[in-house]
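Lab notebook, bench 4. The sequencing result for the construct came back, and we need a structural model before the next group meeting so we can plan mutations. Quick request posted to the team channel:

Model the 3D structure of this chain.
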Amino acid sequence: MSAKYAFTKSLKEVRFLFCHTGEGSAATRTFLTRAYPTMKKNNPYTPILLREASGTLPKVYARYEFGKEKSKSLDGLTDKQIEDAVAQLVKSEDAA
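Done. Here's the predicted structure in C-alpha cell form:
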C-alpha cells in the first residue's frame, strides 16, 4: 500500500472535503482513518488537508505546480473505490 501513496513530485497539496456526520461521507471517513497515516508517512512535506463541514458532499482535490487543480467526487464510492480514485489523482503527472 505504501507505493500506492508515493505522490508525484508535481503534487503540491491534497484536500479532502467531507461531512463529519453524514452517511454519504462514511466511506471517506473510514478511508482517511485507515490511509492518512500511511500517506503522511510517505509524503511528510506535502500538505494533506482534511476539511469537515456539515452537509458537504465528499470530494478530493489535488493541487499541482502552477496552481492547476483536479478534483474527484467521492460521493457514493466504497472505501476501495476511494482508494483507487485518490491513488489516480496523486500519481497523475499531467494536471491538465
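Residues 59 and 73 are 4 Å apart (CA to CA).
Will bring this to the meeting.
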